[in-house]
Amino acid sequence: MVFTLQQLYKLDTEASATLNSVMNAGKSSKTETLDSAALSKLTKDPLIKFIKDLSKQLETSLEVCKAASLKIEELTDREIQNSRKMLQLQEQQLDAVRESMKEEVSTSVRDSVKDELKSWASIAAKPSKSADSAVRKSVQKAVNSAMESDARSRNLILYGVRETQTVEDLPSLVNEILQEVIYPVPEVMGTNRIGLQKEGSSRPVKVTLFHAENVRSVLSKSSKLRTSESPTKDFSKIYIAPDRSKEERITHQKLVAEMKRLANDKPTQHHTIRNGRIISYDKDS
What is the pLDDT along the chain (285 residues), one digit of tens a residue? Predict the structure, then answer.
């Protein structure tokens, strides 16, 4: 027998009908009053019929229970298999993320190592007891720099974001800002303020995403904030920047100062910073 709900409903109907017949024959309105005195009033023929009906229904009940048990086992096995498949898919997704992050780290490490090769070669060429130590320090410095650069590549720095009443309000506000820039909004790993709070000013916000590609996408579209038409929020004064190292910030500050000078000296041109260089072009072009 294959278990179905229709079988269960049918069995319930038949058992209820038989029980009602027995109670009517024993002139009882409740099963609690259906005692031996009431049953003794029944004649032989109806009593035999009731016993046969109840025996048949009991047999059917056992078959339905067995079929239901098998169905439950089948559903349980299927649920376990689905859970295993879900775990495998999640594991594959995690592996893909790990591989992506590993590749990004490897690329950063290779780039940093290339920058250090010349200094290593000059140190190693000199037979000195301090050579090995110097090389190890250079290697460690290059690896640390690469790891730091890789971590910063997944960060955004938001300037001009108003201070929120609680820390819990910050992720929601950041999500609203990103919605003005890009859709769908990339998943955010974390948000936090940088520096000490001062009256009358707002601290920068560091936003960490899962992938450096998402950071680049947001940065490429961040100018949308200047023309933001949000009906409830004014995001036009918010500036989104990459997470720069101390050396990169100094270089960028010099470029900004130079760009301001050019804006005063050559007002008929647009001046912007791209890939660490100042690009100028005529406003009419």
Answer: 666 777 777 777 877 787 777 777 767 767 666 667 766 767 777 777 878 887 887 888 778 788 778 878 888 888 888 888 888 887 787 777 667 655 655 565 566 656 655 565 565 555 555 556 666 676 677 677 778 888 889 999 999 998 887 878 899 999 999 999 988 999 999 999 999 888 888 899 999 999 999 999 999 998 888 877 665 677 888 999 999 888 888 998 899 899 899 889 888 888 888 878 888 888 776
Burial (CB count <10 Å: 0-12, 13-18, 19+), residue 248: middle
For residue 78, which amino acid is it? R
| Helix or strand (DSSP H, E) at 78 | helix 44-124
Q: Is the peptide bond before 46 cis (omega within 30 degrees of 0)?
A: no
Question: What are residue 274's DSSP bridge partners?
Answer: 277
